[in-house]
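WARN retry 2 of 3 for item q-0093 after timeout on previous attempt; input resubmitted unchanged.
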Amino acid sequence: TLSLKHKNRASCNIAFGKDNPQKYILCNGKHLPDYPLTDTTPFIDNGYRTDSVTLTGYLRNLPSSRPFDVSIPDMITGKEEKYQTDIDSLGRFTLRFPVLNSHNVFIDWGRTTIWSAVEPGETYFLYVDYAQQQKLFMGKKARVLNELLSHEGLRESLDYNEEQKRSNLECLHKTQERLHRQLEFRKKTLQEHPLLSDKYRYYTEQELRYDAASTLMQRRFSVDRNKQEHLEDEFMNYIDSAFYPHPVHPYTLLRGYNSFMRDYIGYIDDTTPSSNSLTLTPQNMERLYFAFEAEGKVRLSEEEKNALRSFSKYQEEIEKLQTAKADSATIKAYTKEQETVIKPQIEIIEQLIARDGLLNEYMTGQMYVNAINNSMAIIDSLQMDKDLREILKTKCYYEVLQYTHKELPDSLISKFKKEVTNPSLQSYVLVQQQKYDKVSHKTIEHPESLMPNAPLEGITDGEQLFRKIIEPYKGKVIYLDIWGTWCGPCKDMMQYAGNIKNLFAGKEVVFLYLCNHSTDKSWKNIIKEYGLTSKSSVHYNLPDKQQSAIEKYLGVHSFPTYMLIDKEGNIVNRKAPRPTMENQLLNAVYKELEK
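OK item q-0093 returned
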């Protein structure tokens, strides 16, 4: 039972059941007034154990009926994970979403547009009146959310093009000046509102610091790693004194800190010589192929075995001459003498390598092992606590899984479990590992979509290769997708491929995929994962030389690249609409179909 008694326009008494009445004051402004008491409690730090947050709300005068959403900048995945729920006819909703710790959140961006912070295990209530532009939070931990709404900081947008023209030190000084102005504005706000909570004070200071820090560390892309260039000492000394030693706690509290650490570690990785170089000698190649045969992965002909042995022995003789300190003329004479003998053997080995992709698969795997080892060495060399160390290591393993779209070797998973003991962090990698293990054992639907390379062997001219590939589809419109398993934007587009194929079901349209520099297993895994095969789909994973020749002929400079080819085999659009651009793609394809 609720009894309500109005005293005047500004207040009323409310009694719940038999409880004593309490006085409530009308809040008719955009935000709540300042809280009357101090609050010194810090943000929750739960030790990075996945928990949930519940956000329920009432939205008045909704400008649109789209679902309500919350985005979480995930420190491990590097993405903003989005969660959404429907809003009922009265404007009510409830959304529960996972968080790793106290967390930065983006609430209903583009409509409600609130950038704030929530704490694990908490429930918040949001009231919004879009006509009155009023936004209010309720809940035991809602105070800091209301304070952040009521007292926004000084926002200064940066002109990207102008920033790119500046030198690193000019950018440093401009950023320092901007940070000083923002901190002074914040100081004035705190003086005018002395009862603002400690959470507000901490969050706003750290937000400004790591917005500046993440902006500065983006300058890592201004130096050429191939030329072993470095950011200036003054620049990095400021980073190392002002930002790195004083991290935000918890680490998940701010997206800016995540961005800063990503680029800070990335810069060190870029400028640190790798100690795990990857080399493949003829002797190693012979050993590997005989091991592949022993494991039942390949059947070598006597000709191929002899070619591997001959190439290995040839290299051994070169090394003996070098060890004996033979002069260059002697070594050159030996290579000239053996040229006619060894050249046919090398051609046999090249055909073997191109035939099954086993060696490429192995070398790529070793490359990722080395990359992980390098990253682990960098992380272990830096001063940080156990939690941050485990977060960064988890991120490293997760990124390799996402890059390759195939399961990691058992040896790497065992190593990961030893290095990362936090169960919530472990689950990021182990769940993905299980996912790709299932994908690897999944049967490919419409296997006829995967085209063999054998009919194209020996063709080196890009135009000739391209014409040979599209020849069977004359009379049909071809939507060409040039992509790579290593390409993030390419894989982002794959999730829309099914919708596009449904749009043209039963039409004379062929979806042609040409894959760039990708191992056979990753190629097939992504095809299976996104369901990219169909009666109208054609996939090629050509040897690197042939794929490069086609890309050169087509003028491909970025990935993914989409092109449209008419019924006669003419390229009519070299910048065809992406799968996300449904209406534009529909119009472009139907225009060709109707000709």
